[in-house]
């Protein structure tokens, strides 16, 4: 993720439509988006408009590594997975 601008989001911010719009816009601008130690996301957007969204979940403070890495191919599914993760604590499985 070197060279990317990091945009911070607060826990719960992704749960509303404004937060989802910020998430989507920042990823489309080639920024990484991080929510504390809960999750980190970045996207690769291809010339045909397709996107691959990488989400890292649950930063393990002891070793500095994220416990899970999942991928999505739609912003709506990525937002839905992050909303569920923040609401339930269940780490998403990806697509």
Please sum up the structure shown.
The protein is an alpha+beta fold. The protein has two helices and five strands.
| Biggest sheet layout | 5 strands, mixed
Q: What structural category characterises the helix and strand content?
A: alpha+beta
- Helix percent band: 25-40%
Q: SSE string, helix = H, strand = E?
A: EHEEEEH
Globally, the shape reads globular
**Which consecutive residue ranges, at least 5 long each, have pLDDT under 50?**
none
Give the overall pLDDT as a whole number: 93
Radius of gyration equals: 12 Å
Number of strands: 5
Distance between the termini: 21 Å
Task: Give an overview of the whole structure.
- By secondary structure, this protein is of the alpha+beta class.
- Helix content is 27%, strand content 34%.
- The protein contains two helices and five strands, in the order E-H-E-E-E-E-H.
- Strand 2 (32-35) and strand 3 form a beta hairpin.
- The model has no long low-confidence stretch (mean pLDDT 93).
What topology does this entry show?
Blueprint: E1 6-8, H1 17-28, E2 32-35, E3 39-45, E4 51-60, E5 65-72, H2 75-88
Parallel strand pairs: 1-2
Antiparallel strand pairs: 2-3, 3-4, 4-5
